[in-house]
Design a protein that fits this description.
Layout: H1 2-16, E1 24-28, H2 31-41, E2 45-49, H3 64-71, E3 75-78, H4 88-95, E4 107-109, H5 145-159, H6 164-189, E5 196-199, H7 205-210, E6 214-218, H8 229-241, E7 246-249, H9 256-265, E8 268-271, H10 285-297
Parallel strand pairs: 1-2, 1-3, 3-4, 5-6, 5-7, 7-8
Helix pairs in contact: 2-5, 3-4, 5-6, 6-10, 8-9
């Protein structure tokens, strides 16, 4: 009898040990985050991504399933820099999960691990949809991906110490592959240095700065404000006097103004993905940057 009790107790300890606990339930705001979590977490995590990759990342329409997923999450990871300011806070309030509130161990803001650019000295409605902490599209600088992956690895290790070695190993393998790809992307982008480009929205500023492409203007007169005919005419005059080669168009904004300027000025419109899943070819974090580089260099 005593032997049977000891065996039962051993089985209970085995089954309830953190090493054999069910996978961490991770909620990621955007697909690029979800892809990174899956690469670092492997079989120790289950990931639910809130936004689709072809959506405008500033404007996500919440669904009831989002609340349910956040309510049962062990960890919520956001891009931060107020990119989700319009939709994540209401979801957090409705989900009422104390573990994933800002400041708690189950909340991770990735923007805290990089240096943001274009931080405004003041913010007002007249400036359009300006983010007070800086441009939130930092993840489109491929050099920023390693610190993001490291932050995810450290957070997973904190929440699930029994599998910390696995997280560190997977992170090291990812970082090694990523650093090799950085060399390849830099080599391919050398030929584009000093090329003047126009953006629809300031999605690609980090990428352009990294590879020394010159920003000649934006189709939006102000961030988040659709172009007026007056602004398009003004931009046309500027580009006539000082030409640019490419117009960079995202997948979610209308391209009428971009096509109009391209026709008038003999420029090329390049549709670029801004996240994993934005276009069919960008089905992971590696192929996202492969595709951005390929479309810019073709």
């Amino acid at each position: 009898m005593k032997k049977n009790c000891l065996m039962a107790l051993a089985c209970l300890v085995f089954l309830t040990s953190p090493s054999f606990a069910r996978p961490l339930h991770i909620v990621a705001a955007y697909p690029y985050i979800g892809d990174l979590v899956e690469r670092i977490g492997g079989g120790n995590v289950r990931v639910f991504v809130l936004a689709r990759g072809d959506y405008n990342p500033h404007v996500i329409i919440p669904r009831p399933s989002f609340i349910a997923q956040i309510r049962r999450a062990n960890l919520l990871i956001i891009s931060g820099a107020q990119l989700e300011i319009g939709w994540i806070p209401p979801l957090l309030r409705q989900a009422n999960n104390p573990a994933v509130q800002p400041g708690e161990p189950g909340f991770l803001d990735l923007s805290r691990y990089v240096t943001l650019i274009d931080v405004p000295t003041s913010v007002s409605r007249e400036q359009g949809d300006v983010h007070p902490e800086g441009n939130p599209h930092y993840y489109l600088d491929p050099e920023n991906i390693i610190p993001l992956a490291k932050a995810i690895m450290e957070k997973l290790s904190q929440l699930d110490s029994q599998n910390a070695l696995d997280y560190r190993t997977r992170y090291s393998e990812f970082a090694e592959l990523w650093n090799k790809r950085l060399i390849q992307w830099a080599e391919k982008m050398k030929g584009g240095m000093d090329t003047r480009v126009v953006e629809y929205h300031k999605n690609y500023d980090y990428f352009l700065r990294r590879y020394k492409l010159q920003i000649a203007g934006t189709i939006e007169p102000l961030p988040g404000i659709p172009p007026t005919s007056k602004h398009v005419e003004h931009l046309e005059a500027l580009l006539t006097a000082n030409p640019a080669r490419l117009i960079l168009q995202d997948v979610y904004n209308p391209d009428d103004a971009s096509r109009h300027l391209a026709e008038k000025l003999g420029m090329k419109v390049v549709v670029l993905p801004h996240d994993v899943g934005a276009v069919r070819e960008a089905n992971g974090i590696f192929s996202l940057f492969d595709e951005i580089v390929r479309r810019l260099r073709e």
